[in-house]
Amino acid sequence: MTFITAIPKNFNLIEDELKKLCYRHDIVMIEFNSKKLSIASYKKPNDKLLTALRFISSVPVCYDIWPKEKIEHYFNRCNHEVEIQEEPIRYDPSINNEDKPNSPAVNYVDYLIASAIEKRASDIHIEPFKSATKIRIRVDGKLFYVPSPPVENCAEIFARLKILAKLNIAEKRLPQDGQLEWISYDIHYAIRISTLPTLYGEKIVLRILNTKNHYSLEQLGIKNNLLSILKQKLSLPQGMILITGPTGSGKTVTLYSCLEYLNQSELNISTIEDPVEIPIKGVNQIPVNEKIGLNFSTILRALLRQDPDIIMVGEIRDQKTAEIAIKAAQTGHLVLSTLHTNSTKNTLERLENLNVSPHLINSCVKLIIAQRLVRKLCPSCKRHEEKPITIQNDNIETEITSWQAIGCDHCFGGYLGRTAIYEFLELKEETVATQFYQLPVKTEKIPFVSLFASGLLLVKAGITTLKEVYEVTGQEII
Q: Where are the transmembrane segments (predicted)?
């Protein structure tokens, strides 16, 4: 694993990118420093442009309105200073390290990762196209463009990333996966790198994980009554707890929080992961290696001979893994795992498709949690809707006060950070599992709050918007 120390962002590189962006939109950049960016235009800049300027500069943006003639005169006089053709990057890390190579590729990779971490990005997408390579970073679940490298530096940048992740730099026809560790201000980040051949070359995606970013169950945002149910199920000596949702819905954080809650010296806890994302002290974490036949089912079968108390299976992907996991949950082990399904009820159908009988589901599965991540409104600029909105929830019309995402210097488009919404389905022994396939939204035996209803609670509290809840739950807007 490669260790790299992050460095401060490059001021000159950012200033050059701002100049080019302003030039393309007939805007004069008056001043740029660590406190603000001042611009001038003959008309009010649109919101998307202001958001882009704030995103690149990381400082508040203020603007003046100048006469169009003054703008034209400025560009006629200073046009030679604005280079339309991008020059090779010369990034100075501002670090006293004589042994550090001073190549454009090394400098750009350092700048890109450090900048993405600073902006709280979870992923970096490096995408080759016919005439340019585009760079986007994912912040709070949405992708944003960031400054791209010159075409002449791209091959070296790609090679640099592959070397850091210990990938084969000569192999460009097949997908590859690797990992490196990045250290930024004493914080360790695990960065997973994935390559994929496309029409115009290899696309590279970097997934950024803060290895110290552990959460307690109380910090997950689960309501008190549901949190009590989760803790009660985690205290069981055997059984299965399933966490479901699409990729990027926060399942891993929930799993790790459960493991942190359970992590005690008198318990033998083992995990099977592909890959191991966050090291946990005192937990036996086993990485999957498909190349040598070390898959989930093989590891799980061997793990049952290791006297485990608690087993975490990163994902139940096939029938064989499901069978062994259910067997483990029957024979004195608490099993935690995930499935890629849309809701708690879909999870029961998925288990049936994996040939797990309703009887085994009923006796082994103690709790199913479906979850999604919603963006949180920026507290500095959120605003009430003028009129209450009437919506349908559980076939009942409900009137709620919604909120608007406005956008300001503190956020990107009105949102800042994310939180989770949850749907719990508690299976009890007296319940026949097949009944759940036709579960109504509410039952007397099992209190049931859907993902959509959970999201509405956050809307009422002013934490997120109704639009965001509709988007992440896939609910039709009525």
A: none
